[in-house]
Amino acid sequence: SDGFEGQPTCLHYSALYAQDTWKALSMLDIEFGLRGEYFKADEIDPAAFGFPATAKATDLSETNLDPRLAVRFRPWQGGELGLRLGITHRYPNSPEYFWWYLNRGSGFFNTSLNPEKAVQYELGFEQKFGSRASLALRGYYYDISDYIASTTVSGVGTVVYNINDVKIYGGELEGVVALPWHFSLWGNLTLQKADKDGDPWDVDNQASNQLPNFPEVMANAGLDFRPDQRLRAGVALNYVGSRDYMDGKQKTELGSYVL
């Protein structure tokens, strides 16, 4: 259960899942899983908004089955080729539900709110070099229906809505190297793109079908120190590339940053 100040138990989520791995051959594993989910969002007490609001009472209720399949093939020592397929759902969190509930009758397009449904495909290869290093390369493609997005409208606040269809595709490269004296060096790089179709806010397609607030380049690197299982220390660098951003109806750009 989750909620917000004024209505601490508003969203309810429960799931039951089972999965098993079948070792078909000495070099081939097949894993199948099935997840059943139940999500319910209660009516909001008007007093929970903290100010007079004319939001009409409503609730949401969803039940879904999400299957997944993974195949792992090890053609040689230390090498593994993996294929993963699956369906997953994402449900509105408490801020998204709060603002959608409050503003859905404001004359904008947010008259209904559906959970996201994503069909996910991933293909990857990992190679271990003894116990000292590993290198992995993965490609992925996600086809998402009813993508949950939001924007800020002057005089109204946050407006939450669904984009009809979003496609995300990209690749990841990551590596780890063990160093002397219990140190290890790691890093990863993500290059990705996202296209959208049916955005009720960007009806003039100012973003050229690009998904707002979506970095196309991300990178991380770090140095860890772990002398035993009880102690770990490290330093890390995180880079997030520039992103398109909708400032009202106009496309602008948020610059890259480093942590």
Structure characterization notes:
- The chain has 259 residues and is mainly β.
- Helices cover 4% and strands 65% of the residues.
- The protein has 1 helix and 14 strands; from the N terminus they run E-E-E-E-E-H-E-E-E-E-E-E-E-E-E.
- The strands form 2 sheets. The protein has a 12-stranded antiparallel β-sheet with strand order 1-2-3-4-5-6-7-8-9-10-11-14, covered by helices on one side. Strands 12-13 form a two-stranded antiparallel ribbon.
- It is globular, with a radius of gyration of 22 Å.
- The mean pLDDT is 90.
Low-confidence stretches: none
Strand neighbour order, sheet with most strands: 1-2-3-4-5-6-7-8-9-10-11-14
What is the strand content?
over 45%
Q: How large, in whole angstroms, is the Cα Rg? A: 22 Å
Major sheet summary line? 12 strands, antiparallel
Name the quaternary structure. single chain
What is the approximate shape?
Answer: globular
In percent, how helical is the residue content? under 10%
Q: In angstroms, what separates the terminal alpha carbons? A: 33 Å
Number of strands: 14
Output the helix-strand order. Answer: EEEEEHEEEEEEEEE
Mean pLDDT reading: 90
Number of helices: 1
Class per helix and strand makeup: mainly beta
